[in-house]
Amino acid sequence: MNDSSPFVLEARDARGVVTLTLNRPGAFNALSEGMLGALEDAIAGIAADDTVRAVVIAGAGKAFCAGHDLKEMRAAPALDYYQRLFARCGEMMLSLQRLPVPVIARVHGIATAAGCQLVAVCDLAVASSEARFAVSGVNVGLFCATPSVTLSRNLGRKEAFEMLVTGEFIGAEEAREKGLVNRVAPPDQLDAALEALLASIVAKPRTALALGKALFYRQLETGIAPALADASQTMACNMMDASALEGVQAFIEKRPPSWKA
């Protein structure tokens, strides 16, 4: 990679699936300020484009993402700088969750610290059987506090805390068993596994997925009564959408639905 190479490569297929590839392979795709800025711009563009159907986050080179750029962080230590950096990274992560389309992490190699956080904040994750995950900041005296937020919302509490206080790696199959990733495939079948998931997603109406994703994350942070009230209202609004009306009618008439989007 040379100095003129973009931090993030963006590609789009005919279905509206956008792939964002972290493009600092020589630095294991560490989340430098330049990388964060490129991701912010790409995500903002996707959020404004109602023809996008799904997003894939991938990494160039040997790793998915090694977390924050520690060399950059150490160059000018100051509390206000660190506060801005971690707040900025957290907002970028939340912006992925706020997108109205499913976001899938395509993980190969290592995903450590904020890189593991990035996997956890994605709606779905498909991993190579050779992928490895860790929140390893504690090994250099830095508890992975911000990754702990999304990690603890994917794994059981004790499983997440063990990763956070030991800094030890887990493999892809263990990550699947613990709930960090959805599917694991051999390296040469990773893209096929990703495509199988994408094909299922893009076959569904975009409106239903957008309503459902927003509700899914809202209700996680509330008690059961307000969550059910919110879900009831969401389903009522969804039912009035043309795609749902067509889908139900098609079910009644025992035919495939004819969706416009």
Describe the structure in your own words:
This protein has 11 helices and 9 strands. It has helices spanning 33-47, 70-75, 79-98, 114-121, 145-151, 157-166, 172-178, 190-202, 206-220, 224-239, 242-252; strands spanning 8-12, 17-22, 54-59, 103-107, 110-112, 124-128, 132-134, 170-171, 183-185. The protein has a 6-stranded mixed sheet, sandwiched between helices. Helix 1 links the parallel strand 2 and strand 3. Helix 1 runs parallel beside helix 3. It starts with 7 loop residues before the first strand and ends in a 9-residue tail after the last helix.
Biggest sheet layout: 6 strands, mixed
Q: Mean pLDDT across all residues, rounded?
A: 93
Low-confidence stretches: none
**Count of DSSP helices?**
11
Number of domains: 2
Distance between the termini: 38 Å
Strands in their spatial order, largest beta sheet: 1-2-3-4-6-9
DSSP helix fraction = 40-55%
Q: In CATH's first tier, which class of the largest domain applies?
A: Alpha Beta
- What overall form do the CA principal axes indicate? globular
- DSSP strand tally: 9
- Rounded to an integer in angstroms, the radius of gyration calculated over CA atoms is 19 Å
